[in-house]
Amino acid sequence: MTDTNRIKIPDTARLGGLMDVRGILGGVVNELGCRIIKGEWQSGDILPTEAQLIEQLKVSRSVVREAIRILNAKGLVRSRQMEGTKVMPRSDWRLLDPDLIYWRIQAGDRKVLLNDLLHVRLALEPGVARLATQNRSPVARTRIENAWRSKLAVVADTGGSRQEQRDSFILADLEFHRAFLAAAESEILAQLFAVIEAALGLLIDLQMRARGSTTELVGMEDSLGLHEKVYEAFTRGDADGAETAMRTLVERAILDAQQGFQLIE
User: Fold this and answer.
1) Half-sphere exposure of residue 110, counting CA atoms within 13 Å on the CB side?
2) What is the pLDDT of residues 75-88, one digit of tens each?
3) Minimal CA–CA distance to 192: which of 101, 74, 96?
4) What is the pTM assigned to this prediction?
5) Is beta strand 84-87 parallel, antiparallel or unpaired with respect to 77-80?
6) How far, CA to CA in Å, does 108 sit from each of 40, 56, 77, 119, 253?
7) CA-based Rg of the chain, rounded to a whole angstrom?
8) 84: phi > 0 → left, psi -120 to 50 → alpha, else beta; which?
9) pLDDT tens readout for residues 192-206
10) What is the SS3 assignment for 51?
11) pLDDT-wise least confident of 10-14, 100-104, 177-181, 238-242
């Protein structure tokens, strides 16, 4: 089994979904959310009573009530008088909530999550590359150029450990895609990327493992070449070319990930 949890998950992917939750309350929300997603309680099951949760979690009544209220808002449960707190079907869950994405990663639901993400990338990123190239504002050009140079710099820098170089490559890859989304000038797309960023980091890690890159940066020549075609099309203002190049890049990522899925138990 691969250690996909080793990739650092941004704080925004933890308890930053509908509200900023930290401390004891954050810990209780996190525990209950993970337990639901792991399947400890199935759809239609009634959670332990308020008194039982207070005893189990060793927290106050107000903390339990607020935690349940937050889980209600995320679609995981529904509380009704005389019925208790019932676990809702998966179709009701707010699957784009960053907390749920984090909990799915923690719960071992990576394969389904990453497969969903691949479909999102294929549906969105080629169009994002087209929009970014059509807009090509000075700020966007500078950011994309810097992101590309950072990718090249990571590959060229052999001064640190191989593991550090590999991790830096993943971060540089994320910034490359983030820069194109920013260049598309869509606040909704930018927020969508922020939501899925933790899972996207895991996906890139999985793609690299499928190519044999587990603790060092190897086998990334093809990936770098595909990114270069996207960058070159962008710099010459070729929106069609950028869209096609990004589609090819994501399709190759899908093939890599499908090979890498066997690495996930």
Assistant:
1) 25
2) 999 998 888 999 99
3) 96
4) 0.73
5) antiparallel
6) 13, 24, 20, 19, 21
7) 21
8) left
9) 777 777 667 777 777
10) helix
11) 10-14
The crossing angle, in degrees rounded to 10, of helices 138-156 and 110-135 is 130
The residue among 36, 210, 174, 30 whose CA lies nearest residue 109 is 36
Give the separation between CA 254 and CA 244, rounded to whole angstroms: 15
- Label residues 40-79 b or e (16+ Cβ within 10 Å = b): ebeeeeebbeeeebbeebebeeebbebbbebbeebbbbee
- The packing angle between helices 110-135 and 239-260, to 10°, is 170
User: Which pair of structure tokens corresponds to residue 76?
Assistant: 């995981």
Q: Which two tokens stand for residue 1?
A: 């089994």
Is residue 144 exposed (0-12), middle (13-18) or buried (19+ Cβ within 10 Å)? buried
CATH of domain 110-263: 1.20.120.530
Burial class for 19, CB neighbours closer than 10 Å (0-12, 13-18, 19+): exposed
**151 with 224: CB under 8 angstroms?**
yes
Q: Cα separation of 207 and 210, whole Å?
A: 5
Closest CA to 129 of 31, 254, 38, 230: 230
Domain boundaries, the chain: 4-92, 110-263
CATH code, 4-92: 1.10.10.10
